[in-house]
Specification:
The chain is built from five helices and five strands. By secondary structure, the chain is of the alpha+beta class. The chain has a domain at 52-126: Nucleotidyltransferase, domain 5, CATH 3.30.420. The strands form two sheets. It has a three-stranded antiparallel β-sheet with strand order 3-5-4. α3 crosses α4 (73-83). It is globular, with a radius of gyration of 16 Å.
Length: 131
């Protein structure tokens, strides 16, 4: 059975994790501002995974990457949902996963954006893996 949840950020983590997909209602507002992804001290305490997606993105990349060290963007998205059912790039101020990845050029590389050739897939690798 497919389980989808919708709720606020205060929803208990156990409930969020029990869902295959969980959407935060705060992500539906149109005036989203990017969350800080640097290590500045916030005025209110936040969970590390809420302010910086790097660890989650790296874990998902490890799950989705092939022998060549590249992961298809859609596979990366699926791995992110498996790791965190509430994952949404809008939480980090980006309306698409690709834009979130591109915002972290110091950690990730992207190829396949020109859409030339037989495949139009977009691939992602880490800078450490493909230096």
């Amino acid at each position: 059975m497919f389980v989808m949840g919708i709720g606020k950020k205060m929803t208990p983590r156990a409930f969020v994790n029990a869902c295959e997909v969980f959407l935060f209602t705060e992500n539906f507002t149109s005036n989203q501002k990017p969350r800080p992804t640097t290590s500045t001290k916030p005025s209110t305490p936040q969970k590390e995974d809420e302010s910086d997606p790097i660890r989650l993105l790296e874990s998902a990349w490890e799950m989705a990457s092939g022998d060549d060290g590249w992961a298809v963007l859609s596979d990366l998205g699926n791995a992110l949902r498996k790791l965190d059912p509430s994952f949404d790039p809008r939480t980090y101020g980006h309306n698409q996963l690709l834009k979130l990845i591109q915002a972290h050029k110091d950690k990730f590389r992207v190829r396949g954006l020109n859409r030339e050739g037989p495949s139009s897939a977009i691939f992602v690798t880490t800078k450490e893996n493909n230096s």
